From TrEMBL:
Sequence ranges of Polar residues compositional bias: 34-43
Any one annotated GO CC term: mitochondrial matrix
Chain spans, region G4: 182-185
GO molecular function: GTP binding; ribosomal small subunit binding; rRNA binding
InterPro entries for this protein: G_ERA_dom (IPR030388), GTP-bd (IPR006073), GTPase_Era-like (IPR005662), KH_dom-like_a/b (IPR015946), P-loop_NTPase (IPR027417), Small_GTP-bd (IPR005225)
Domain Era-type G positions: 58-262
CDD domains referenced in this protein's UniProt entry, alphabetically: Era, KH-II_Era
Similarity comment text for this entry: Belongs to the TRAFAC class TrmE-Era-EngA-EngB-Septin-like GTPase superfamily. Era GTPase family.
Gene3D superfamilies xref list: 3.30.300.20, P-loop containing nucleotide triphosphate hydrolases
Protein name (Swiss-Prot/TrEMBL): GTPase Era, mitochondrial
Top-level taxon of origin: Eukaryota
Amino acid sequence: MRYNLLASSLKLLNSTKNHNLLLVNVRSLTGAAQTNDAVATTTRPPPAESRNPGEEQRSLHIAVIGVPNVGKSTFINNTVNHRVCPTSAKVHTTRQSNTAIYTIGQTQLVFYDTPGLVTQHEIRRHHLDQNFKSAYRHAIQHADIIAVVHDASNAWTRKELHPTVLDTLKAYSNLPSFLVLNKIDALKSKRLLLDLIKTLTNDTLTVGKREVQAKSAPAKEIRINKRESSWSHFSDVFLVSALTGNGLQEMQNYLVGQAKPRDWKYPSDMHTDSSPEALIVESVRARLLDYLPQEIPYNLKCEIEYYSVEKNVVYTSVQVQCPTTRIERLICGEGNGKLRQITERVTSDLVEMFGQAVSLTISTVSKGKKTAA
């Protein structure tokens, strides 16, 4: 099985290298929201190595915030054109701030992927660390601008910003912020998008007539509407689909234009400051969230057992600690079939992340008994 998985990862790596990533671009919106009927192939930006040595370096640090499951990690991965942040279909996949780095020409964009903004009740329910709530504050304190990602596809919540988001914007009102309406591919109505922008910004922004730079106001001057469901101080709004890449190029161009003249914090070929071991563990945990029902994956603990790179191949092993033998059997499945599926899926994620062949072993343990796939 170990040999078969390595052979599969080598095959996947070759197919990835030969695949041209196509991003779908939302055309400029001038007074009326555009749907994603038209698909255009975006060209990849020139590599950082082609920059003019005589030009000064510029950078912008962006804190990406929002409630759980609005697509923040997918949004960042597709914006930087590299898999950095593990993703899953369940809430609370991101449990600590991750840093994604994208360098284009003389400009470096640094994105801080933050955990979903939560209440104390949600922390208890999902067995989250108490430091969970402070992670986004740490990210914002190192940021130049705040990106608020909002799920436009959720009919129940799309018409108002969550109170935790509003509280955060008020607490850091000295920083400029912009709104990212995500998952617009699920909407067909132009009118609905326009009404949504009007509602969430308290009718203070007109799409296509954007301010060049946010004007920060003192905290005492901040006012939101009576229902506290909108924010009147967004400097810009973008309609995107993080899953397809729709609208991300326009937003990326905007961020490059906002960059400040200063030395880069990271080398031009660096995509994240997270260690490979941490990325591997988080990738395993993310897929456990996808494959296991209800609250079960939140009670599991993943630890790296082995990590080595030999002849451009990543060899690694992760142990999943289960609270009971029943849960261990659920993870493994009949004949370890489910555990093999999870291992194959994580291997695919890691090949994309590292750009190298990967040989991965995931083992489970409960009450001293160990199973591996």
